[in-house]
Each structure stands twice: as C-alpha cells, then as structure tokens.
Amino acid sequence: MSDVPAAEAVANAKAAASDVPGYAFQHDVVRNLICRQARYPDIATPQDWYMALAFSVRDRMLARWAASTKTYAAKDVKVACYLSAEFLIGPQLGNNLLNLGMEAEAHDAMRALGQHLDDLLALEEEPGLGNGGLGRLAACYLDSLATLEIPAIGYGIRYEFGIFDQEIRDGWQAESTDKWLQKGNPWEIVRPDVSYYVSFGGRTESTTDAEGRLRVRWIPARQVKGVACDMPMQGYRVDTCNILRLWKSEAVESFDFQDFNAGEYYEAVEEKVVSETLSKVLYPNDEPEAGKRLRLAQQYFFVSCSLQDMLRLMDAKGTPIERFADLFAAQLNDTHPSVAVAELMRLLIDERLLSWDAAWDITQRTLAYTNHTLLPEALETWGLPLFQSLLPRPLEIIYEINRRFLDEVRRQYPGDEARVKRMSLIDETGDRKVRMANLATVGSHAVNGVAALHSDLLKQTVLRDFAEMYPGHFTNVTNGVTPRRFLMLSNPGLARLLDQTIGDDWTRDLARLDALVAHADDPAFHDAWRAIRRGNKTALAARIRNTTGIDVDPDALFDIQVKRIHEYKRQHLNALYIISLYRRLCRNPDLGTAPRCFIFGGKAAPGYAMAKLIIRLINGIAEVVNNDAAIKGRMKVVFYPDFNVKNGHWVYPAADLSEQISTAGKEASGTGNMKFMINGALTIGTLDGANVEIREEAGAENFFLFGLTAQQVDELKRAGYRPAEYAQGSDDLRDALDQIAQGRFSRGDKDMFRPLLDNLLQHDPFLVLADFADYVACQDRVSEAWRDTRQWTRMSIMNTARSGKFSSDRAISEYCERIWKTRPVRIDLAQP
Ligand SMILES: *Cc1c(COP(=O)(O)O)cnc(C)c1O
Fold first, then answer.
1. Which of 671, 673, 679 to mutate to test the pocket of ligand 1 (most atoms within 8 A of CB)?
2. Nearest protein CA to atom 3 of ligand 1, as residue
3. Residue 259: which domain range?
4. Confidence class for position 22, pLDDT limits 50, 70, 90
5. 91-135 pLDDT, tens digit each
6. What is the pLDDT of residue 46?
7. What pLDDT score does 287 carry?
C-alpha cells in the first residue's frame, strides 16, 4: 500500500491541481480523476487512480496520434493495413509508458499522489482478443510498425468477451467468461461517426444499366452496422502513434417491419439478435467442429468494414480509385480475413462500377496472404450452403474468380484435370466447400510462410500447385517478437544490464545484442547475469506460490513449456519424460540429477477433449510428485493457470530451459521460442518452425536438439508407423504408460486416461512414442550441462546475444520492403 499519508496525498493533489511548475503530469492525472471520472483524491480507489493515470497517458498518445494522422493525410503515403481476426495486445499501461519514455515520471507522479505504479499496473485486465501465437504476432507487428514509423492501421474485431479465463479445478481445466470490459477500457475511443453497413443473406438481382452493362444488385435479408473502436498504438521513443481499429457490431437503427410477412417478421427479429451478438465473443481455435455460421459472419463483418474504411480514407484524400493499391497494402493474417478477396472485388465492381479486370488488378496488387498452418485439418473451408445463405453476392464473385482462374490453369496445364480439381477454390469432393487458403492465394500478389522451414514445406505440400504456377509470389518472412514488451518491460533488470554493458542501441536494433559475445566469458558479467536471472525466478516462484500453493526452489532448473495445449505441441511427451524421471528418482533417491522445476501453462480449446485430458494428466503428475517426501525437492511439477500475455511477463524471463518439442513439420514458426531465447533461456527442441533458425543463430553447441526431422516423420508415416512397438522396445516408456493406465495419476481411476493411452498406442498421430527415447537422452544432456554453472551461463548469454534476428522489427522491415513497399514517415510533434 501507500507510504504517503492520505492527507499528504491530498495536499500533493491540490498542489498539482494549482499550476505549480513540475507537476504537469500529476496535474493531468488529478484533472482526469475529477473531470473524466467524477471522483476526487480523498475517495479515489486504486482502480480510479489506474483509470486516471491511463487517461493521462492516453492524452499524451492522442497528441501524437493527431500529428501522425495529419501528416499521413497531407502526404502521399502508403498505409500498411494489417487485417487480423485476433490482436492479443496484452496490458497497455506499462507498454505505453515505456514507449513514451515516461515510466519514471509516472512512477514519481503516482507516488506523490500516494499510489504505487506497480500496484496500478497489476490492476489492468488482459485484453484477451486472441487465442495465442497468431494474435500475439499481430500485436507485436503493430508495436514494430509504429516504432519503425510506418503508417499503419490494424483492423480487427472488438470482442466483448475475449478468450476465456482458465481455472484449474480438481486438476481439470474450468473455463469462465472473460469480462475484460466490465470496468471500462480507458484505451478505447469509440467513434459512432465512423461506421459502415454490412449486408447478409437475401438474394441478388441482375439488371442492365443505361450503358448496357451487366449490373448485380444484392438485396440482403439484413444489415449490421459496424462501429469503429480505436486503440492508439504508440511507437517506441518516436512520435508515431498509429491505431488499432476494432469493429463493434450494432443492429441498424430502424427496421421497417411493415415490409415483412409473419414468417419474415420472426426471422427478422432473430436476425436482429444475431447482428447484436456478432462481435460478442472470440471463438477459441482448435475446436474440432468449427463450422460456425457466426464465425463466418464475424469474418465478413470485420473485413467489409475495414475495406469500406480504406475506401473512405481514399475518398477523403481525393485519390482516384485507380490508385487504391498505391495507397494501401493489406495483409491477411491467415485465412480468417480471406473473404477480403471477394469483398474488395464486390466493392470495386458493384459499388465503384469498375470493370472486372481493373478491379482484379487492384485487388491482387493490394492483398497479400500469410499462411500459418500446414495441418490439413486446420485449413479453413466453409460449406457452400452456409456460404450461399449468408453471403450470396460474395459467393457469386468467388465463382467468377474461380471460373477465370481455372481457365488459366487449363491453359497452362492442358489436360491436367487432377490439378484443376486440386487448385479449384471449391472443393467438389463430398460436401462442396469454399477453400479459403486457395481463395487467399489466388487473390494475393504475395504469399508467405512464417519461418524458413514452414515456407519451404508450404511450397511442397498444401500450396504446391500454386507455388508451381506463381513461383514469384511465394516468400518467407520469419516471425519476430517485440523486444520492448518481451525484454524491456518484462525483464527490466536484464535490460538495465544490457544498457550498462553494450549501450542502449539494441532497443531499436536488436541485432546489436551481438556485442554481448565479447562478455560471454567475463566472470563479473556472469555474476550479474545470474543475479538477474535468480531475481526473475524468485518473482515467478512467488507468483506460483500465490496461485497454486506450490513451493518451488528458485535455484532449481526452471524447465518451462507455456503455449496452447495441443497434441502437436506434445505437452504429453514432456509429461511422459517427467514420469520416467520420477521413477528413476524413486528407485534411486541419490541420483545425481539436477533439481528441476517443470512448469506448464496454456489453455485448451473448450471442445478439445484430448487437450483437456493432457492438462488433467499434468496436474495428476504434479499431485503425486509434489507430495512425495521421498524425493524431497528434487523435482516439482506446476501447472500455472490462465497463461496469457500478462502472466507471460513473469514466465519468459524466469526460464532456464524452453520446451519447443512439437512434431517436426507441424509448428509453423512459434514465437514463444523467441521470447525465451531473447531472455536467455536455452532451448530443447525439434527441428521445427523457427527452432531451426534459432539453432542456426545460437549455434548448435548452445541448443539441445532431439527428434525426427520433418522428412523422417514423413518417411516413418509412409512406411507404416506402429507406435506400440516403441512401447514394447523401451522399459522406461512402457513403465510410464503403465503407471498412467494403473491410475497412479488419477487417484486410482484406471479409465480416466484411457482415451489418451489408446490414442498414443494405436495411432499416435504426432509420433510422441517415436521421439520419446531421443527426448529422454537429450534431457539427460540438459541435466549434465546444468551441473556446469559457468558453461550454462555462457550458453545463456550466447542465446540472448544471438537473438537479434527474432525481433519483430526485422520481420516488419522485410514485409515493408519485399511485400508492402511502404516507407517510414517521420512524425514530429513539435512541428506546428
Ligand atoms: C507468445 C505467446 C503464445 C505463442 O506461443 P508458442 O510457444 O509460439 O505457441 C501464445 N500465447 C501467449 C499468451 C503468448 O504470449
């Protein structure tokens, strides 16, 4: 609590309120407290102070936003529009203070007002507008865009309920509704004047206009209004402030019910309810049955609003429609916004009366598509009946795009009807579906994967035919993460040490971290490095104790796997290793293995039974291991609940070992792996996603590699993989599986984990059993390496030193140069 007495705080507030020099910021906070919230210092709660502080910070950003917007409007600049169904932006206050360079000022001001900045920071709700990596990537990109002074807009959906909150009850995941807006969102600016109508359902009518041209009119069954909700995105120590524009759905004001017959009336009421719920809730991904009508409606809704907004900005500037692609680059973050291909065509043809060819040229030059998955089951498709009933006009346009496109395929590959079938935008096998990845690919001038391996595999597998036809369209942009949030903000101790050691250029050019190599053998630097890491581990240990009641030793090896729970990410491989290590410890309590603390975190999609069972297994193991006095302190297992961006701030800086153990060929990139590396964790991992590049950068000697390669995975599957044989061949593995089957980790219940065991022994689609032995051997090498503190510290330093490539600044520079052709625009707040 406060160490400034209440009376003194009030006096300070009064002083601040009366233009005493030096109190400017404090003054703003008090003014916002009174004028915006109708509270005053004597009665203000910490939440009130948080809001007043946030509003005062926002005011500073809006001055920069105004300067940015004014400059963009005046100059002939190209704007990068990042279209994403998810933006997992994390708490804003700390990051905004950091980027504005006013952390110390805010700290002092709040202290004078009797408040601790850290307490206020802790009050901020996580804006959970994303599921995981994909949404977080979009947020990192907005930070880098602003920092690199690129004119940009993030476009997405303002979900009223974001990703659910996770609790653990009796070892199981329990979900509760995320109510992030309950106490208000001080960062949001609602703009009722920036709104657009989006049509759904109904039918189309063809007519011929006065010039004898074919015109199509869409007569929708209903319209939904999208209202802009903006959040300022401040660049780091620059005056650029861009916006994240999220669309909130509203029912249109008036409904002319007279026009309806009785049946249509009830339908209309129902549809009205639907329009009001359109932006209510974020869909958790990885749901096995995801063909939800509302989800397609959400996608079309935010895409249509965003494209209409871009057209309006173009009109406001007085730029002719022919130059649209010179004014905007629009990136599709996965296929979720890929209906943009049809919608931009519709807007250009039906509403702006362009010819098909002119519209198609603009569409292709504007759009680019980022693929995020090779898992065939995760490639988005929509059944034709659903698509037809919800979006009749866009579907007609997709048919026409497809007709012209397949003509082109036939011209290039005469007689190859198998290829035509594979490339068609419509899947004609079984129930007919629209293939969104094909649509996005055909409508874009650039298609990229998110790590070198992923981009290669993309060209060999899911988009092979397209890569053959348009080789020049395919490229790679390896993902990155922002060093502001994931190092400066969440690991301030390390950031300070870096500043002292190599200067602070690394904050805007992470490649400069390479200068650390010169200090990798300096004993004094080692001591400082370890002291910071121990502090971070102590802080995480305290949070673990508070949330789970489990005591962990900050001197143990912190072995951490945090990410969404999914079979391909193989948390169960980690769990099997823990069981085998536990058995060894039970048999030989004097085993000279390093004390380890295994920490897991991550949410499972509510409908993904196997992932939820894996969470239950981890908690079952934790219950047994943590309560076994015989192995005293040699190992601990923790499931840290509700992993999100906010909690991640304590997790990534505290890791000694980063678990990146997905089946090779399945993880597109991963970004958690990068956050760990930047903070000095060593990786144990497969050659998957960006792990390949992490190992290249860090050096093979600073990385723990195991497992089958993507090619070997492929070959093994082709040859006929029989997982049970691996269990038969290994005592360790068989014993671990037996213990699970005996109910050892389910309080005697022998049925609980049967689905998991059956799956592993009969199918094991992600080759957990095939990789087990090599994983165990690799973990033993980790334990061995941990015994040599000096060598481990050196490897840790080398990981941070070589992590420069994984800055989102590098990734965004590549998008700007190779795909968007956008350039920085200097914003100067001081200019009139
Ligand atoms: C970075 C991040 C992820 C992505 O983690 P991966 O290990 O790359 O799957 C998921 N969730 C949150 C909250 C993150 O910050």
1. 671
2. 133
3. 78-91+126-479+815-820
4. very low
5. 999 999 999 999 999 999 999 999 999 999 999 999 999 999 999
6. 97
7. 62
Residue type, 541: A
The backbone torsions φ and ψ at residue 702, rounded to the nearest 5 degrees and listed phi first, read -110, 25
Query: Do residue 450 and residue 533 come from a single domain?
Result: no
Q: Is the CB of 602 under 6 A from ligand 1?
A: no
Q: Is the model's pLDDT at 15 over the cut of 80?
A: no
Residue 805 annotated among the catalytic residues of the structure = no
Query: Could you say which of 78, 537, 675, 794 is catalytic?
Result: 675
CATH number at residue 371: 3.40.50.2000
Question: Active site includes 564?
Answer: yes
Cα(432)–Cα(80) distance, integer angstroms? 35
Note whether residue 73 is domain-resident.
no
- Whether 831 is in a domain gets the answer no
User: CA 293, 294, 299, 302: dihedral to nearest 10 degrees?
Assistant: 150
C-alpha dist (Å) from residue 731 to 305, 726, 735, 746? 59, 10, 6, 22
Could you tell me the two tokens for 198? 């989006």
**pLDDT band at residue 21, thresholds of 50, 70 and 90?**
very low
pTM, 2 dp: 0.95
Q: Could you give the number of structural domains in the chain?
A: 3
Check if 336 is active-site. Answer: no
Task: Kindly state the tokens that stand for 130.
Answer: 């994303």
Tokens of 432: 């007919």
CA dist 465 and 463 (Å) reads: 6
Residue 11: predicted pLDDT = 62
